[in-house]
Structures are given as C-alpha cells and as structure tokens.
Design a protein that fits this description.
760 residues, alpha+beta, 5 domains, 20 strands, 52% helix
Length: 760
C-alpha cells in the first residue's frame, strides 16, 4: 500500500475526503458482498441439514424399510449361569433342550521351576540355553521345533542363544510365551481354544554347519544392528525359505535375478519377498561398509598429501616437547602403553609442524600483499612459531584437521574416493553378495533337513517333549511341567451333538455360549419367540429420528422474517460488541431457509409419503392402523405420535396398537410398516438424485447451482474491489494535482512579495 503525503499545502484532510467520496460507491457494491455472505450461510445451513437427512435415510429409515429386520427373535434360557443363547432371524420358534458335555480349552504349558543354571547363576531371560544344559553332541547343535497349526519355527541353539530367544520363537509361531522371573517358570499357551489350535515343542540335533550358515546369514544382513522390526523380518524370511524344497529354492534364486519376473501365486510372492528381504539387508550393509571404507581411505590420502606438502624439512622436537606430547596422549587414552603413546605423540608432533609451516606460508603471502606487517627482526618463520606456541594441542589438532578437510574436499581426493567405492561395490560385488546369501540359505535348509530326532534336552528348560495331544498333570505338590491339552466344546441340542473350537457354537440361527457343564441327566430349556419389543423399539427409534429432523425443517421453513437485517460491514462490526454481532448474524442465519422452495417441497413430500397406505394379503394398512398418527395440534405441523408410548405424555394412556400388532400378526405388521417406510425411502432417494449442473447425488439441495453462483459473486466482488481501488487512486491523483498547483501559486506569490518588499 503506497504511503501518501497529502494536504501539505492545502491543509486539507485528503484521506478523510477520499474515503468519504469512495464510501458511496462502496455502499453500492456492498449489496454484492451481502449476497455472497447470505449464499455462504445458506450453503452451510443446507449442508448441516443434508447431513442429518442422509443419516435418517441410511440408519433408522433403512432398517425400518426391510421386512427382514422385523424377524429378530427373543431367546430365554432356564439357566443363564450355564448357557446363554441369542437368536437371529432364522432361529426356529419354540422350545429346545441343551446339555453341555464339554467346554473348550486352549492348550497351555507351565514349565517346572528353573532357578539357577549349570554355573549356579540365577536364571534370567538373558541366560543362554547351553548354560541351562541344552547341549548337543560333538559337532552338533540342538534344534527346538515349535509347531502351531501351519506355523513352524526352528530355533538353532548356539552358544549365544538365550532363554528370551526361545520365548520370541514361541511368539513368532503364534503362541503366547513368557519366562516369569519371579516364579522362574516358562508359561506357553495357544491364543485360541480348540483341538485345531494344539501345538508341539520338540527337540532334535543337526550338524553345527546349520548354526554356522544361519550366523552367516545374520552377519551379512547386519542382524545385530537391526531394530526389532528388522530382526523379525529376517527371522520370518529365513523361516519361510528354509521350508522350501531344493528345486523351489533354485527356481526362486533365478526369479530373484530376473527383474521382469512376476510371481504367479501369493505363496510365491511371499517367498520372493522373503529372499529379497535378506538380500537387500545384506546389500545395504555391504554398501554402507563400502562407503565407510572409501571415506576412510580418501581421508587417509588427504592426510598423507597434507603431511607430504608441509613437512619436507621436519625434524622431531626436543625431548621436553615430546614428553609433553606423550603426557597429553595418555591423558586422552589411559589404556595406551608407553610405546603406543610415543607413536601417537610422534604423529602429533609431525602434524603440529605441518600446521606451523602452513601458518608460515600464509604469513609470507600476507606480507607480500601488504596485509601483514611484522615488527623489526621478525619474519614469517618466527611469526608462525610464535603463533603455534600460543595454541593448545586441542587447537592444533583442530587446525590440522581443517587442512585435511580442505584437501579431502578437493576433486582429486573425491575422485579417488569414488574409484575406491566403485572397486568395493559394483555389479559383480552385488551378484557375489546375493550368491553368498543364497548359498547360506541352501546350506541352512539342507542341514536342518538332516536333523536327528529325540535330542531330549527340553527338560533343561523345565519342559519336556510336547506333542500337543496329551495332558500332563504331575502329583500334587511336585514341581514338574503341567500341560493342559487343547479340547473342543461339545453340546447336545435337541438330541444332536455339536462341537466347536470355542465355547460359543452357532447352529440353526442360535448362538449358544456355554459357561459351565450340565450334570448327568440335566438339561437346559431355551425358548425362542418373536421379539416384538425389538420391533417396537425399531419403529419408535425411527419416529423419534423423523420427528427431530421434521421439527428442525419446520422451524427453518416457518422462521420469522429478517427483511430488515443485512450482513454487517467491517465498519458496522467495529462499532458493536462481539455478543451483539453474534446475535445479529444468528438471527439472519436462523431464517436463511425461510419459505425456501426446495425445503418446502421436500418437507411436503416426506409427510405425504408417510401418509400413504400399502396392501398386504388383500388388506390396506396405513400408519394409523398401528396407532401412529399426527397430532390435532396444527402447530406441530406433522409430527408423529405412537399410541400407548410411555414416553409420550399425551398418548401414553392410549391403546398400544403397535405392540399388539407385532404380538398378534407380526407378518402383517412387518410387511405393512416396511412398505410405508419404503415409500418414504423412495421419496427421499428421488429428492437427492443427481441433476447435471444443479445438484450432486445424495444431496437434497442444489449444491452445484449454489457453487456456480458463489464463483460468479466472488468474481464480481473482485471486479468491484478493483474499481474501488481505481476510483480511490483517481481521487488521490486529482488532489495531488491540486496540491501541486497550489504549491506553484504559493511560490509565485512569495516571489512577487519579495520583489515588492513585502512578506507573506
């Protein structure tokens, strides 16, 4: 915005005058601004109303229009403490008998206590399995196999394998597992109940080459440097690949090398992803190692270049200085021997000399160009020597490193670094890494396949060989492994035996949940009946939702007039309090849809749809047939009431026709009410169908038409603002011309007065 220095000669308040001149035109343009504001408020009000209408359409109305939703059943049990039953629409009406023969169990294993290892140390999650006694024969490794349905994990026990590794392997197989450090016991269990989810834990022996191959895979993939998710990904990949046949692995290796190959099955895609996971981790590690090696090599070259260029006349410092350097080195690393400290000190001495020679070179250049003037008897060499003498060893190290960094950044060194990296990481190296990964995977799989069964070492973990079928219950008071076998639930329904993996069994439309066993000869009676109350509640919920939205629509349509109210300008808002502004705008917004044609048409159509009747089995039904009517109070404007509704004070004492209809003729009530609701559903569907350039689908108002009008108004407002700016500039230009003319006139008057000998 330009800064105007106006009224300097005339003394007029030009800004105020221009503002008043422009205000008349601004007031004319305010009508367009008001239209845009009112349209925005109208869009907001319709958007809010549309959301509520659509919610009615998709929830309570959608439920009520489908006759199948009236088929819910009410089920009662003679003994809820043993059996709880619910029924869907297909549940057979009448009485049924149930006995509970067996409850479902999840397999659970509780190990014996393992307090100390073979070395007498307290057992923790970090205790190794070998220290616990899981030891294989010479040249062998123990393999613990955990099978849980289709999942299988094999844990090759090495000298580093811990109790926590065993727990994590159980978890990877889909089990719950924990070593309780207070009880010193392993707790292992299936997540799901039923015989289908039994698991086994067994041990065997394999050649130690399996452990070597697995360790090679982990080393190449930088396993120890990965986070938990990365380690889990490698473990999962190894487990997937070791289950493949030799032929499948060979084919997989070939496919992994073919970038154009597309897996043909989900299983193959998973296998290919597993192989590439390990290969990519291995390649990432090799690439990172190659970069580190190349950088270190280049920095070494840079340091050598610096020393070679600056230490041509180097001679070792005197014994006193060398001893000081040795003391410094030992202070930074107390573990160094005297001999090693002396080697480092000699290196630092040479670096210090290089720093001094560099300062000397810079001083010579500065003296030559006149930027450095030395005292009498001083030269560049003595200047450099004095400078170095005033620096600490830390500062000298920093200056030398700066010289190395400058040399390291040179194109020559950077080229050497790239050449070194290229020699370490290239296409051939990438292929070698992939081949090494593949070879170790194959070796690991081959050695595992050779495993000899029956290592029998799980007792060292407080466990035993677990086949997943037997229940092990030691004598009372003894400390031994306890196994609860997986079992299915079993019930007898009307003479038929039914089983399930959980204690909830679904059959013939009934959902039966057993919580206890029946005794011999005992049965539980259940009764299935139509759920009249649920149907009544569904209709009542619809009526409430419909009344809520209709009441709002009536309020909006019949709102009082606000003809004398217009949106406030910025100046008007500035002269009012926030509360006054809010009340003013709320009054306008509340009447924004007054006598709106679209709203009126929609309200009338919805009322008419619910006043319609339908025919079922040759008989006509309307809402009134079920005691659902409008009030005689015209001010309610079509709100519905249910005769006998206990929550409706005016109608609570009337005969409850709706509940009676559901009890006496549920089919007729369901089909008739669903038909009337369908009429309203169709009406609302038609009212929110899409019309090109007018309204979008699922929209009850002309949103597209309003959006087009908004764009037109915004364009008009922008044009008006440009016109106001031009008009304002025009007035300022005119006043500026006037000021210029008055200044010239004053100058001429002053000159004339001077000639006549008078003063202004």
């Amino acid at each position: 915005m330009p800064i105007r220095m106006s009224g300097m000669i005339s003394g007029l308040d030009t800004d105020t005058i221009v503002k008043q001149l422009v205000s008349a035109q601004k007031l004319k343009y305010k009508k367009t601004n008001d239209k845009q504001t009112l349209l925005t408020w109208k869009q907001e009000k319709w958007k809010d109303l549309n959301t509520k209408l659509f919610k009615l359409y998709t929830t309570d109305l959608s439920k009520m229009r489908l006759s199948g939703n009236y088929l819910s059943k009410a089920v009662t049990s003679s003994n809820d403490s043993l059996v709880k039953v619910t029924g869907d629409s297909t549940a057979p009406l009448g009485s049924h008998k149930i006995t509970v023969n067996q409850l479902a169990n999840a397999q659970n294993v509780t190990g014996a206590k393992i307090s100390v290892d073979k070395k007498g140390k307290e057992v923790t999650n970090n205790t190794t399995l070998q220290d616990l006694g899981v030891i294989a024969g010479d040249g062998k490794n123990t393999v613990i196999t955990i099978k849980n349905g289709t999942k299988e994990q094999k844990l090759v026990v090495t000298k580093d394998t811990t109790l926590n590794d065993f727990v994590e392997s159980c978890k990877s197989a889909g089990l719950t597992a924990n070593f309780d450090t207070s009880q010193k016991k392993l707790f292992i269990g299936s997540i799901n109940s039923g015989e289908e989810y039994k698991f086994s834990i067994t041990s065997s022996e394999v050649d130690e080459n399996a452990a070597i191959a697995l360790q090679n895979i982990k080393d190449m993939a930088n396993y120890s440097g990965l986070d938990t998710a990365g380690k889990s990904a490698v473990d999962s990949a190894v487990n997937t690949l070791r289950q493949l046949s030799d032929a499948e692995l060979t084919a997989l290796y070939e496919h992994a090398n073919d970038s154009s190959y597309k897996p043909t099955t989900d299983a193959e895609s998973k296998q290919l992803s597993a192989l590439k996971t390990i290969q990519n981790y291995a390649l990432s590690k090799t690439q990172a190692d190659s970069k580190t090696t190349a950088v270190n090599y280049a920095k070494g070259e840079a340091e050598t270049n610096v020393l070679n260029s600056l230490t041509g006349g180097y001679q070792e410092s005197d014994a006193n200085k060398m001893q000081n350097l040795i003391s410094y080195v030992k202070s930074t690393n107390s573990t160094l021997t005297d001999a090693d400290a002396e080697i480092v000190a000699k290196k630092l001495d040479k670096q210090n000399y290089a720093v001094q020679k560099n300062i000397e070179k810079e001083a010579e250049a500065a003296i030559a160009n006149g930027t450095l003037v030395l005292g009498e008897g001083e030269d560049a060499a003595s200047y450099a020597q004095a400078q170095v003498a005033g620096l600490s060893q830390v500062e000298l190290n920093s200056k030398f490193q700066r010289l190395v960094d400058i040399e390291y950044a040179s194109s020559n060194i950077q080229q050497k670094q790239q050449e070194k990296y290229d020699s370490l990481y290239n296409d051939q190296k990438i292929q070698d890494i992939k081949s090494a990964v593949n070879n170790n995977i194959s070796s690991y799989k081959t050695e595992l396949d050779k495993g000899a069964a029956g290592a029998g070492v799980l007792g060292a973990l407080g466990l035993g060989e677990i086949d997943g079928t037997a229940t092990t219950q030691p004598p009372s008071g003894s400390d031994a492994m306890v196994v609860v076998a997986a079992s299915n639930s079993s019930i007898t329904l009307d003479g038929a035996t039914l089983t399930g993996t959980s204690n909830t069994i679904v059959a013939n439309g009934l959902t039966i949940t057993a919580t206890g066993l029946t005794t011999a000869g005992q049965f539980i009676s259940i009764n299935v009946a139509n759920n009249s109350q649920a149907n009544y509640d569904m209709v009542k919920n619809f009526v409430k939702s419909y009344n809520d939205i209709l009441k709002e629509m009536n309020t909006l349509y019949y709102a009082g007039s606000t003809r004398d109210y217009a949106p406030l300008s910025d100046d008007e808002k500035a002269s009012m309090s926030d509360d006054q502004v809010e009340k003013w705008e709320t009054k306008i917004k509340d009447s924004i849809l007054r006598r709106d044609d679209t709203l009126g048409s929609l309200t009338t159509a919805m009322k008419q749809a619910l006043q319609s009747s339908v025919t079922y089995n040759g008989k006509q039904y309307s809402l009134a047939a079920f005691g659902i009517t409008t009030s005689k109070d015209y001010t309610e404007k079509g709100l519905l009431h249910i005769a006998g509704d206990k929550d409706d004070t005016a109608y609570s004492t009337s005969a409850d026709k709706l509940l009676k209809a559901f009890n006496e003729d549920p089919d007729a009530a369901a089909n008739a009410l669903a038909g009337i609701a369908q009429n309203l559903y169709k009406t609302m569907t038609d009212k929110m169908s899409s019309i090109p350039n007018v309204r979008s689908i699922y929209t009850f108002y002309n949103d597209k038409e309003m959006a087009t009008e908004q764009l037109s108004l915004k364009k008009k407002i922008a044009e008006n603002e440009d016109k106001l700016t031009a008009l304002e500039n025009k007035y300022y230009k005119q006043f500026s011309a006037m000021e210029t003319a008055m200044a010239k006139l004053q100058s001429q008057t002053n000159a004339l007065s001077g000639l006549l000998g008078t003063s202004s």
